[in-house]
Amino acid sequence: MTESLWSDHVTVADASAVTVALTDAVLDRLLAAPQGLEARVYEAMRYSALAPGKRLRPLLVMAGSRLFGVARVSALQVAAAIEMVHAYSLIHDDLPAMDNSDLRRGRPTCHKQFDDATAVLAGDGLLTMAFQVLSDPDTHGDPAVRCELVAALAAAAGGAGMVGGQMIDLLAEHMPLDIGAVTRLQRMKTGALIAFSCEAGAILAKAPAEPRLALRGYAHDLGLAFQIADDLLDAEGSAEETGKPVGADAAAGKATFVSILGAARARAQAVRLVDHAVAHLDLFAQRAELLRQVARFVVSRKT
Amino acid sequence: MTESLWSDHVTVADASAVTVALTDAVLDRLLAAPQGLEARVYEAMRYSALAPGKRLRPLLVMAGSRLFGVARVSALQVAAAIEMVHAYSLIHDDLPAMDNSDLRRGRPTCHKQFDDATAVLAGDGLLTMAFQVLSDPDTHGDPAVRCELVAALAAAAGGAGMVGGQMIDLLAEHMPLDIGAVTRLQRMKTGALIAFSCEAGAILAKAPAEPRLALRGYAHDLGLAFQIADDLLDAEGSAEETGKPVGADAAAGKATFVSILGAARARAQAVRLVDHAVAHLDLFAQRAELLRQVARFVVSRKT
Q1: Nearest to A127 among B111, B128, B148 (CB)
Q2: How far is Cα A224 from Cα A291, in angstroms, rounded to an integer?
Q3: Domains in chain A with CATH codes
């Protein structure tokens, strides 16, 4: 990470643009389609993983990795693996059996562009490949580090993380959740993978406990702020801006931070959470400026 | 593996019964449901992974591991991880979007017992947990071995293995496949995971190339023999015996070994493949007797 763009004074817009380009180049390489008939599932994997997006999780990986001087190639492998898991979760969540969404990132969802069966398989393939990437010596020379990455991703993505959170989210359509239950749901569904994104650099650098705990605190607050911003966009944004249908939560009768707190209190809470998130970064001094900017960007974004 | 049941003279029936009991005990422990609302997805994961079954892949892991004196606890962790991946693949393959099957292992399929969304998530959760188990220090003390297991499972389960094979299988409903294409499809869809099951013991023992290649040859032939036997059961068996609907391949117009070769030639081919499989095991002498018996069992089974 020696480029000037990764200097202490880089703007979040510039860092984001660089991250998108670098991550997508790695994804393009890792998801190269083979010659056989199975190419179709790779096309679907590519369609979703390389769809236009913010690449927020890769940006967090890169911003967290620069704190410790992690090699760019290592950080990018992890960034690509996490983006694969994110893309898989969107594909499966959008399925008719789940949220039944037609639009994602401004384009037809994977099952609309291909078909339901191919979408199920594309999600399965992306999830599987994420673990393959993390276990690859290209990601890190030390197998203990690679194992820790695999274990941390599995914990974030599995029944105690994303999968469990999505299960609760589906049940929430049929039962009222209070603010504590919604908070737990979102910590599992989106917070766990965001937290892994923030901590990946520390794992790659074999960093000691203190900076790891600081990053965990940052990620904890950032994840909730991110979700509140997402709920606000669903309640107040437009499909043109967000690239996906809006108003879906309210239509489904789902409890969200906005439905429980109201928009004004939810927005104030998001701002407060970002302040808390940033406060965890003091020990990194100037080196964490990008992470601070990312946190502020998360609650001001329009997409 | 010091029990008498793992002696050189154990019968496949006894070894199978012990493997079922031991594997299911590990699965029961690993899949313990938490207290929260997400318990529902764990119930679905347990329903499928602990459904009555032959546990053929765990049996191959155990039989392969005893060649090298691998610690039983290590072999069982890998056996449980592979069975999770097998169960996930059945759940997703049975979905309405895929094969739309109502019956599996003599019981309602996962999406029939729960619902489509829960079944998608249960499959996702099992796949994710398999990698978590392999990356766990309980599986092996050496992180390099754990990484190799993760990489090998991902290769067997992903786009170049199971996921890619299932993609081709879906496309095969709409196009005629010749014997070469069907062979490649089945090597990917079922052969790759069977091969990993056979090789896992060698990975756990850090065995040299020669025994690994022998096991790979065995697994290669066994996997095809297994699939031909499966096709014969689908063409000639009953739902009572197999615990799943029969005749589905013919009804879907899918090319199988039986539809291309005819039942008699397919059966002869399976027997020939078993002979080839067994011939790869000579260097293990008497220690491989269980693997030899498993191969013969695979083509004589009625379920």
Answers
A1: B128
A2: 16
A3: 4-300 (1.10.600.10)
- Rounded to whole angstroms, the Cα distance separating B132 from B155 reads 16
ipTM of the complex: 0.96
Judge whether A299 is closer than 8 Å to chain B, CB to CB: no
Residues of A in Cβ contact (< 8 Å) with B165: 38
Give, for all 303 residues of chain B, the pLDDT tens digit.
445 556 767 899 999 999 999 999 999 999 999 999 999 999 999 999 999 999 999 999 999 999 999 999 999 999 999 999 999 999 999 999 999 999 998 899 999 999 999 999 999 999 999 999 999 999 999 999 999 999 999 999 999 999 999 999 999 888 889 999 999 999 999 999 999 999 999 999 999 999 999 999 999 999 999 999 999 998 887 777 777 777 777 777 788 899 999 999 999 999 999 999 999 999 999 999 999 999 999 988 776
Q: Which residue is it, tokens 């469990």?
A: A164
Q: What is the pTM of this model?
A: 0.96
**Substitution target from A31, A40, A41 for chain B, most B beta carbons within 10 A:** A41
Nearest beta carbon to residue A159 from set B41, B136, B166 = B41
Give residue for tokens 């032959």. B54
For residues B232-242, one letter each, b for 16 or more C-beta atoms within 10 angstroms of the residue's C-beta and e for the rest, the string is: bbbbebeeeeb
Cβ contact, residue pair B34, A160, below 8 Å: yes
